[in-house]
Amino acid sequence: MPNAVRFYETGSPEVLRWEHVERAEPGPGEVRVRHAAVGLNFADIYFRTGLYPAKLPSGIGMEGAGVVEAVGENVTDFKPGDRVTYTGSPLGAYASERVLPAACLIHLPDEIPFETAAAMTMRGLTSAYLMRRIYQWKRGDTFLLHAAAGGVGLIVSQWAKLLGLNVIGTVSTEEKAEIARAHGCDHIIYYRREDVAKRVRELTDGVGVPVVIDSVGKDTLTASLDSLKRRGLLVGVGTSSGAFPPIDAMQLAIKGSLFFTRPALADYIADPAEKAELAGELFGHVAAGRIKIEINQRYELNDAVQAHRDLEAGKTTGSSIFVVQGE
């Protein structure tokens, strides 16, 4: 009998329950996937706490990799036995198997293990649009990257090196600084004991950076805006410290005619052709070893409560996954 993690009310990690569930058969346009690995993402916490609304009771998790077991009517792009990965699907990835729309799936090359796919599909595609869609990067550009030792941060830093960019990364500890440097960060700022904006100005001869990639949110907004050069862009890609507070439009003008965007991955992979292009470039870099995916935490699905505790407490670095079964 399949198993899944579900929650019946929002709240602390303890609301997550490990349960037996009935095996579902795919309907028209759907497939059933047997998971080999499942991704653990900060967005999962947002659903669990109610920051992102979910109809309760609900499954949890949006990223997984495994093998197609069965397909429903009108599914032509996938067949039983296909290796697949996905992200941004309906909630429910924390499960040994599940049914979901075939349109969510991405074919997974044989060169990429399931665990790697589960660790990077959401983070990797996010990194792909940050590096390839959000801004017209020029070789030699310098940007500020918050949470540089996080899952997205490590991929973005490596991709930035491929594009000839310079990365100023913020971290909280010496351990995370070492990890960030090893993945391409040129300069480190310890945001808990340094004035981030002041250090950015020092590192850029007083000019500031053209782009700040901010996955922290509430606690870093002011420093992010103050780190930008004239007509710079703040990319609010995550809110690990809480939602971005309201931004006074006049302050954007006063601080240098700044821009702010709050992108969502779904809008960069909604078009199947664009999703395939971004995934292809990501998979190509990973398969060739140009971008390495660090899986620094592995959990069993029935240990989801502890996994969420660790993630919320900032105890994780790089990517975290749930191991469901071997390759």
UniProtKB/TrEMBL annotation:
SMART domains: PKS_ER
Highest taxon in the source lineage: Bacteria
Domain Enoyl reductase (ER) as annotated: residue spans: 11-322
GO CC term, one of those recorded: cytosol
Pfam families xrefs: ADH_N (PF08240), ADH_zinc_N (PF00107)
Molecular function GO labels: mRNA 3'-UTR AU-rich region binding; NADPH binding; quinone reductase (NADPH) activity; zinc ion binding
Signal peptide start-end: none
UniProt KW keywords: NADP, Oxidoreductase, Plasmid
PANTHER family for the chain: QUINONE OXIDOREDUCTASE PIG3-RELATED (PTHR48106), QUINONE OXIDOREDUCTASE-RELATED (PTHR48106:SF13)
Protein known as: Alcohol dehydrogenase zinc-binding domain protein
Upper lineage: Bacteria, Pseudomonadati, Pseudomonadota, Betaproteobacteria, Burkholderiales
